[in-house]
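Long-time lurker. I teach an intro course on protein structure, and each term I like to show students one example going from raw sequence to a predicted 3D structure in token notation. This year I'd like something fresh instead of my usual example. Would anyone be willing to generate the tokens for the chain below so I can use it in lecture? Attribution to the forum is fine with me.
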Amino acid sequence: MNDLNNKVTVWWIDDDHADESGTRESERNAMGNALVSQAGKDLDLIPIHPVDFEDYALNLPDKRPDLLLIDFRLGYKEKGDRKTPYFARDGVRLRGTTLGDNILKDVPAYLVSGVIQESQNGTSDDQFDWVLSYQQLTDELGGKFLLDDARDYRRLQDIHDKTPKNIDTKEIQKHLVEGILDLLQVPPDSIESVENIVRHTVANLLQSESKHDSNELQLSPSRPRAIARWIRAAMLNFRGPLIDERSAANMLGANLIYFNKIKEFDIESARYRGIFNRTASMTLWKQTFLKILLSKDESIIFPSLKILAKSASDHFSIPENELAVCRVCGEFWPEAIAFDEDDPAVDAAVHWRCSKEVTNVDSLFGFEILRSFRK
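-- Reply from a regular --
Happy to contribute to a lecture. Here you go:
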């Protein structure tokens, strides 16, 4: 068996790797050197010009890459006497080419662009597994981010590869669920609820197929990329078994700024440390967090979120001007987190009575219902 922590291989497809002026090439070389330096010797980053990609795809090295980085805008320039093939004029079309290759179709691919905004970072569609900006790659931990993500995909692939093929669907499902729970590093306090969610999801994935933009091309969702997309798009993005610090602050009855100043309340044991944790929106295990909170004092009780917030804020002596207040009515003890209907990028603490359930949104098994407000 291969060591899951062995060096990972990332193909970086960008037409600037061979800019004749040398300016952009120098920028890309510097960025590549920085990424490798951050990740140490464990990252093998291979720059590939689009006109060379077909040769790489048809004549793979010793093993397939762990991850593809594909630039969003690929130029029309020629490289030497070779013309840029039609599919290399944009990253989306080139990704379609990799999905048509039997060896590369299950390799995760990240769409990279210099015009991606912070709000656009995240999962894209069945073609791309993540969208990120070059600014993220130039971050001091950009190389470590690539290394960790590539290894997480490798671990999911390992679960898939080790699943016995000549067993019934229930046994396959059981094997996948156990493997995914292990990679999520679910604490004992949350295992029951999370196991139900994962089992439900895996069952659905095994019963359907994820279609790409070509009607002739289908990818079995039991494969690692589909499981990874669900983990990142649902498990780590929606409040449910996992919550963010804004929700945690609300349970204490504090605003977010004050919550982060409370030194005596150590929440590190509730921190999410499973796969893809670097880009998780939800970062705390809810049940573990509640257990820590309720263990502080018997005066902290949980018959309702409002009473929990009241009793917790009393215990921690939170000043009145630091208490959580409803964005809509301005009163204390809001029970929910909702997004602003006028600006969906903004979310805030609100009362149930001051918000409403979002309609026309597919329900997610095991996750909190989305709520919205208008001030």
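Some talking points for your students: The first strand starts at residue 8 and ends at 13. Residues 209-219 have pLDDT under 50 and may be disordered.
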